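Key result, reporting period 2: structure in, sequence out.
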């Protein structure tokens, strides 16, 4: 049916590309392009003989619009799936506009250099106006709305698990179970154990920035910000057990607050063990999470990048991670004049994921929805000019695809609520 150009060849891309290769009646051609082409070639070789899709590879600097435009013009894909880092979202969107190609990603834009005065001025204004201080937000990509609309192109933002599947669960609950959703609690539980004292399940820089930032939630039309990790709850997760979870800021809160009319409160919780939190606090206290360069022996070093080089590569955690993830949403609201509550969730097994695609469940639960979102655009089911998050489309075909492609979901009509 069509050709996808995937940018990035890390943990998430490794899964998404394997899933595209399985789905070769839709993805008949796949070009894998990244900074380090050897990783793309290695993946292509692994897939040889296992798919009818024609796979090619390329090298690209996704920080350069010029380099991206040259690649897209050479490959001529139907869609670009951005699985590089959030730092590259805007350059890749610019290149898609310049070449007339649809755009898809899994994480909203974040500036790499948070000390850049031009970026900081806009950031500080946004902190004041909106009331949350995370380094990432949708404003940068929503600003492309008119340009994508005028160009007749679709930009589908945030088709991972969270954001992504959690937002589709919300659209599904809204469509089939509620007249009015009043509260949404997104619960992200990783019950996996990799056996290392400390490692992150996806890109350490992105992951550590996210969890060391102040938490925030949406209530009665505004953001409420709290110190990092200061709201803790316990929850008994199906197939995982009792876990501590902490309230974090998370990007889908921003788009759901905009797209679910009348919602009163949206919160996001993620589970962490005490050892993970102690390691992170220590690293933060000694400056290892800093994203600005420091001088060492006459050379500039960014501490968090050095930390990334020292920590286990998330892609290497697959064979040793055991246990399950349980990620989903609890909704409360009104249906036919009566109060109701509902949980929709998925449980994913780390070892089963590894057996299927040589990757643990964190990359699996992101890579599968990345493929599905791309398929929705390629098949024309989710195609309209402009910039959209996933809850803005009909959830039904996506929910069906989750069951088919490895992320089956369950509905609990009597869930335990979070206080
Ligand atoms: N929505 C969700 O649920 C969710 C969950 C997890 C992750 N994510 C997002 O998924 C994306 C990928 O995460 P990951 O864990 O797969 O990260 P990763 O393993 O670090 O992979 C990133 C890939 O991008 C490539 N890359 C980085 N900078 C580049 C540049 N300037 N030009 C070209 N290629 C570049 C890297 O190349 P090298 O190999 O040369 O380093 C690497 O192949 C991130 O945006 C992350 O935030 C979303």
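The corresponding designed sequence is given below.
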């Amino acid at each position: 049916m069509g050709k996808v150009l995937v940018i990035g060849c890390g943990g998430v891309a490794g899964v998404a590309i394997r899933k595209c290769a399985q789905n070769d009646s839709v993805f008949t051609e796949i070009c894998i392009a990244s900074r380090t082409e050897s990783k793309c070639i290695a993946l292509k070789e692994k897939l040889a003989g296992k798919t009818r899709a024609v796979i090619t590879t390329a090298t690209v600097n996704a920080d350069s619009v010029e380099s991206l435009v040259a690649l897209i013009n050479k490959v001529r894909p139907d869609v670009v799936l951005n699985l590089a880092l959030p730092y590259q979202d805007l350059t890749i969107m610019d290149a898609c506009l310049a070449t007339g190609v649809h755009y898809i990603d899994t994480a909203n834009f974040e500036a790499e250099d948070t000390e850049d005065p031009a970026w900081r001025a806009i950031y500080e204004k946004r902190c004041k106006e909106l009331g949350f201080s995370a380094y990432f937000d949708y404003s940068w990509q929503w600003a492309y709305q008119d340009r994508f609309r005028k160009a007749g192109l679709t930009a589908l933002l945030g088709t991972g698990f969270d954001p992504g599947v959690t937002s589709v669960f919300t659209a599904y609950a809204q469509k089939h179970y509620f007249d009015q959703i009043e509260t949404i609690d997104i619960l992200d539980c990783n019950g996996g154990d990799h056996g290392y004292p400390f490692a992150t399940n996806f890109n350490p820089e992105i992951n550590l920035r996210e969890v060391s930032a102040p938490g925030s939630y949406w209530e009665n039309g505004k953001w409420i910000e709290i110190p990092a990790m200061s709201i803790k709850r316990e929850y008994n997760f199906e197939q995982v057990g009792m876990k501590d979870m902490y309230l974090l800021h998370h990007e889908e809160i921003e788009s759901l607050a905009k797209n679910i009319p009348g919602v009163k409160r949206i919160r996001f919780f993620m589970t962490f063990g005490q050892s993970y939190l102690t390691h992170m606090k220590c690293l933060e206290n000694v400056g290892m999470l800093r994203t600005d360069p420091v001088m060492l022996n006459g050379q500039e070093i960014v501490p968090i990048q050095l930390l990334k080089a020292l920590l286990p590569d998330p892609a290497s955690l697959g064979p040793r991670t055991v246990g399950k993830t349980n990620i989903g949403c609890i909704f409360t609201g009104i249906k036919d004049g009566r109060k109701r509550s509902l949980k929709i969730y998925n449980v994913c097994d780390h070892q089963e994921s590894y057996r299927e695609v040589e990757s643990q469940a964190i990359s699996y639960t992101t890579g599968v929805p990345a493929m599905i979102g791309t398929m929705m655009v390629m098949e024309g089911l989710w195609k309209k000019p402009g910039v959209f998050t996933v809850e803005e489309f009909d959830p039904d075909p996506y929910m069906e695809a989750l069951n088919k492609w490895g992320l089956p979901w369950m509905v609990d009509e009597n869930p335990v609520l979070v206080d």
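The chain is about 35% helix and 25% strand. The mean pLDDT is 95. This case is discussed further under Risks and Mitigation.
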